[in-house]
Each structure stands twice: as C-alpha cells, then as structure tokens.
Amino acid sequence: MSPICLDFAPEVTLNSRYEIVKGLGRGTRSTVWLANDTTSPGAQVAIKCLRNDVTAGQGSATYELEVLEAICKKTAATHSETVGPSRVLQLLDHFVLDNETSGQHLCFVTKPLGMNLLEVQKAFPGRRMPVPLVQHVVKQLLEGLAFIHDDCRVVHTDIKQDNIMFDNFGDESGELSDAVNVVLADFDTAVPEHGDRKQLIQPQDLRAPEVLMGCDWGTSADIWNMGCITFELITGCRLFRHEPLESDKGHTTPEQGHFAMIESFLVTDRKDLDARIRFLQYFSDGENFEKFIDRERGYNLHVSYADQEPLGKILRVYDVYDEQLEDFLRSMLQIHPDDRASARKLLKHPWLSA
User: Fold this and answer.
1) Which domains does the chain have, with CATH numbers?
2) pLDDT, averaged across the chain
3) How far apart are CA 48 and CA 332, in angstroms?
C-alpha cells in the first residue's frame, strides 16, 4: 500500500456534517483541517485525517483510536472537578473516509486549539521562558500525565514542545492569564498497557536511557521527557544531544554518545558498588546492551564523556539556579526508571508553587 494523505478543498463536506474551511497543518502521518460543524451553527472543529497505511495499522502498529477512546471513557467516569481530562486532547467524533485510489482514511474530530508550546517558546529571547510561565505549563502537563498514566494506563511516548498546545494564551496585553490551559495532543504514537513496550520511541534528544538501551519502558519514559523539556524551557538549550563523540576508538554512534552524556551527568559516584550492580542488572536485559557496555573492560561504557557539568553548575551558568528547581529536575532525570517520581507525586513538589 502506497502511503497517501488526503487533501480537501474549502467547502467540501466530510461525513455529511463537517464543512472544510482551511488546512491547519500537515505531518508525515496525517493532515489537519479546520471545519464548520453544520449541526451546530457557529461551531468549528479540527479534523485530523490519517494516512491510509496508518489507518490500516490501527490496533497493531499504532493505537491512536484505542487510546483516544480510552481517554474519553475515563473522562466520562471522572468527577467533574478533576482537572486531568482537560489537560489532554479529547475526541469529539471519528469516522472513516473511503477513497477509490488510496482506500480508507480514519479521521478524528477534536476541538481546535491555539499555538503550540514551541511557537510560544520562540517568542522569548533565547527561547528562555519566564520561570512562572514554565511552572504554570509544567504543572498542567503533569496533571494531564497523571490522568493518562494512572487512569487510562497509557504512555504518550512523544512529549515535545510542538505536541503541547495552548487553548488560549494570555490577554491582549500579553500577560499570562490564569485561564491559560495547556493541552497535551498528538497521541498517534501513544501506547496502551497491552502495547509493544520495547519499540523505539521519543524524539532523539529526549530519549530515556531505557529506550536507548532497548529495555522495556513505561510511564516513567514520559517523565524523563518532562525533565528534559522543563530544563529546555527555562534555559533555551537542550540538556542532552543525540550525536556521536570522539573516542580513542574513533567516532561513536549517536546512541553511544547520547548515553555517555547521560551516564556522565547522572552517575556521580562510580565507586558505589550497589548502584553499579543495580544499573547492570536492569540494563543488561536491553537489546542494545552490548552496543554500550564493554564486558572486557569491566562492564564500563565503550566510551565516556568527560565534559558534562553537574546540573547545579549548569543552572548557575544560565542564572536560574534554585535548590528546589534542581531537586525537581533530578526527581525526573534519574537513570533508573524506578527512581523517577510519578506525575502525581511531582504535582506535590514545592517548586511548582514556589
């Protein structure tokens, strides 16, 4: 099957209900359109039309429909005062379009949203967002993650700035408003509890250690993403880079370079034998273990990274050091997944209300 995305002209009506207004975006797996809901005068919706092969893979290669329906079901069963459901994209309707040339295309209908977080971040000098705004955004994202992790049993797997949307942003003066609502969107690679938990996930620079190693992963992989993004929103820079390093054996692979940076940053005491044994016991099950660990050199990394500064020093360089902020970041950026705080626990961290 040749991968094909559908395009629509303005005023075309889909599913006898939705009248296309204009295109909103195009990705590798789908197109997104603004449409009028003809059953409700004045109401507009966003329609995401999946590529034909992505439609065919629903329930096996991808689980977007299953995940969105699970979110809807749990939202309906959740107390109205619970904020978590409002922090994630909610499915309003879905239907399938039959095309003579390309076959079936699954379409999701949702509320239209505003700017994404990357667009907002770019509006600030050096892409460094004010700390109170970062606290506001991160708190709402964690509320959404607590809901999908604990209630829906779903891992998002692709948390990044352009998958985080604003419902609205401030008032006419540009000041942050308490009414600003952040929505976690794009569940096209999200995985339910029964899904494949060893597939390669996450944006390259934001990949968790267990993902790089090829180990089983879970909701704590999303928490790693949150740690990386929080750092980036405050400093304007990536904490880790998925890129090769120079070594005495020549260039490493990007994966080896990335893991070496993480290990150098997080493993502060290499003489801690208990921590070393625990590290090896967990990661030795990874499909990529041999690519990173040299058994002939005492189970050390094939390559080490000597230039990584400690987190506290990095935060001071950017003039954003705060003891509570450092602790908050460390609660998410732990090399062993079991050591990372859950989204629900992170919501109680004092930095979010500092």
Assistant:
1) 12-110 (3.30.200.20), 115-241+307-352 (1.10.510.10)
2) 88
3) 32
